[in-house]
Amino acid sequence: MADRVGFVGLGIMGRGMAANLVRAGTALTVYNRTAERTAPLVELGAVAARTPRAVAQNSDVVIICVSDTADVEQVLFGTDGVADGLAPGGLVIDTSTVSPTATRHWAERLAEGGVAFVDAPLTGGSEGAEQGTLSIMVGGADADVERALPYLQQVGSTITHVGPVGHGQVTKLANQILVVSNMLGVAEALMFARASGLDLAKVITAVEGGAGGSWMLSKRAPQVIDDDWRPGFRVDLQQKDLRLVLEAAGELRVPMLATSLISQLYQPLLRDGRDGDGNHALAETVARLAGQR
Amino acid sequence: MADRVGFVGLGIMGRGMAANLVRAGTALTVYNRTAERTAPLVELGAVAARTPRAVAQNSDVVIICVSDTADVEQVLFGTDGVADGLAPGGLVIDTSTVSPTATRHWAERLAEGGVAFVDAPLTGGSEGAEQGTLSIMVGGADADVERALPYLQQVGSTITHVGPVGHGQVTKLANQILVVSNMLGVAEALMFARASGLDLAKVITAVEGGAGGSWMLSKRAPQVIDDDWRPGFRVDLQQKDLRLVLEAAGELRVPMLATSLISQLYQPLLRDGRDGDGNHALAETVARLAGQR
């Protein structure tokens, strides 16, 4: 018999993923803190539950997609949490981006009740969630990842099993280090070229094919030139992920020179209420330092 | 009548470029400070001259490929320099990576003698120079760039006219900001993942196709994992280019947070005599901070 699947967290990412699961024929029970958000899923054929516990009671596999470490903790182990409802033999798939250390603790705690755990943070934005083209970095035991795979394939197109529980989160955080470092380089290069009076579009064309090339340069530098701050990934979520990087690195006692600097450079944007701008708005802080804003 | 062309500077980049010019049928007069380096070019059919002035006296167009601002200054305006030998109507193409401000001054000074100037710094390494696949960022007046184009096309495959004199240099320096920022991101992400016990090859595979992707991640991160420090671009030349960035930015009074930090992180490599390692050895400084070296 196919697994009954539960889904907790119907935010900007979760709602697209849940819809793709239902459309693929998965029997889905859903929960969201703001209950109205379940309506579009129920219309598609999902069943709404009143608590994460109720989701779990009706499911063999529970997928979680919430914002931060404390939210996953609450969903799993809070009042009426998933851990109280999921029978032994169940599986939790956490697609949120959260602390690797907390992730390992949750997996251990769930294992005591006979429940398996896979961390599967994702990238690809809300478009990726809607279109089912997310990239997913998976940590977990082989058998658990194999069991999770059919559901991950219904929401993502690039799925990489990187190691045991927690390694998915570390990989996601490493990805965030790359994203913001590349963005700082883009911001500093554009600011330098602008201060020198150059045509920035020509600069991008001249260098993007070579050793200075990056996804952020090709996709976000043109947005910067156009003052287009619509988000691929929001500033407030970027800053939250950098906090997770710095927390995890702090536990390991390794200094993060680039990431800590960049985290500071995001602060003025949050102070100015630009939480919902794209993470490429980092270029605005850098431009401000150059007197260009 | 076709231009007679001169070439000054037969180092690791210049010798490949000069050879491609000769092979393309260009009548070439060459000069190098270490005279023996002219021999392979003479064998191909070039004529060796004893001074930059002698090169210029025998040429309509003089291409320069040396290391630093002071070297170009010496070649142009030193004793027996190009400026003393080139007749009015001549053109200088400087492919070195040097100060944008000095570049503009040289162009003005040469213009007084009726000589035109184009700055055309390049990327693509010694392989690119040998194979004629360099990327070239060109600054100069339209007519001068048009005149330079046939020769640039004999040594490079991607040629972008970015603006007036000096703008080629600014674009090259912007490229260097991108290169080292992306490399710092790669170094910090790998160090973080290594400290967390991950399989670094799997991390690269999981993230290189997404928003964290870059040329440095795809080409250099695998070298870092293999402790392969063979140079695509040498540490000492990278540090020289960062000095040019910081000098130019200093003149503009714009702060370069990433580039200044990264320039400091290259210092331990130079102290340890790793001048000839590739610029991806930045990962070694970052790993050292994490106690991984």
Automatic annotation (TrEMBL), chains A, B:
Enzyme Commission designation: 1.1.1.31
Keywords carried by this UniProt record: NAD, Oxidoreductase
Pfam family, one: NAD_binding_11
SUPFAM superfamilies tied to this protein: 6-phosphogluconate dehydrogenase C-terminal domain-like, NAD(P)-binding Rossmann-fold domains
Record GO terms (molecular function): 3-hydroxyisobutyrate dehydrogenase activity; NAD binding; NADP binding
Coiled-coil segments: none
Presence of keyword Nucleotide-binding: no
6-phosphogluconate dehydrogenase NADP-binding domain ranges (all copies): 4-163
Domain 3-hydroxyisobutyrate dehydrogenase-like NAD-binding: 166-284
UniProt keyword annotation of Ribosomal protein present: no
Family the UniProt entry places it in: Belongs to the HIBADH-related family.
PANTHER family: 3-HYDROXYISOBUTYRATE DEHYDROGENASE-LIKE 1, MITOCHONDRIAL-RELATED
Protein name: 3-hydroxyisobutyrate dehydrogenase
Native organism: Microlunatus parietis
